[in-house]
Amino acid sequence: MDTSNRIKQRMQTLGLKAVQISKLMGVSKGTVSQWVNAVSKPSGGNLVALSQVLKCDPDWLLSGKERDKPELNSGWSGSVEVWNEGDPLKEDEVELPFYTEVKLSNGNGSVVNLDNHGAKFRFSAPLLEMQGVEPENAACIVVSGSSMDPVLPDGSTTVADRGDTSIKDGKLYGIDHSGMIIVRQVFRVPGGGLRLKCYNGADYPDEIVVGESLKNVRILGRIVWYSVIL
Q1: What is the pLDDT of residue 120?
Q2: Which residues does the chain have with pLDDT short of 50?
Q3: CATH topology of domain 99-227
Q4: Do domains 3-66 and 99-227 have the same CATH topology?
Q5: Cα-atom radius of gyration of the chain, to the nearest Å?
Q6: Out of 7, 80, 91, 129, which residue is the most buried by the measure of CB atoms under 10 Å away?
Q7: CB–CB of 73/81 below 8 Å?
Q8: For residue range 8-19, what is the model confidence (pLDDT) as tens digits?
Q9: Which residues contact 71 (CB under 8 A, 6 or more apart)?
């Protein structure tokens, strides 16, 4: 069984069609069709995103083999390893800080900080390397609310590459929007503006940010990984 057949197998098991995968991943239907028809294979961030949509291991998609579960301390297997504060990191682990919203003392709005003194997220160093992310550029963002349902439900943890802030249409980005931390699909619009898209478009319509409003939007980094607990 090759990669395309494994993709089709998972699509059939989950009842997904190419157009649904296209929308969930933010890639064209033609790209998904190429994967399904063995014209090309997913790689890099697309491989990770596809494996998350298909709820399987990316190594299995490519080769039919899965990594040993102990190596996936925070990966897509859904396994959780208990550890205590102060426990030494393993050779294949790094600790990632979280972005946090900090309320201003006068009560007017908030600012976004990278919290280097609070909670940490233990993550797979090989997975960051596979994505081409330098460990010092990786940080976590927790999704709040239902705007990114059903792909990123409330409480989902994402990892952003702070070294990648250039917009690639349809990719997911962590954003500081007027002091609020959000995750959105981002598209460029004529005139240098941005379109911020939620997966839950029925309740959260697209937001077009242009002109002076762009000053209120700061791209924190491209989302390279996410974890969902159902």
Answers
A1: 80
A2: 67-82
A3: Umud Fragment, subunit A (2.10.109)
A4: no
A5: 18
A6: 7
A7: yes
A8: 999 998 888 898
A9: 92, 124, 126
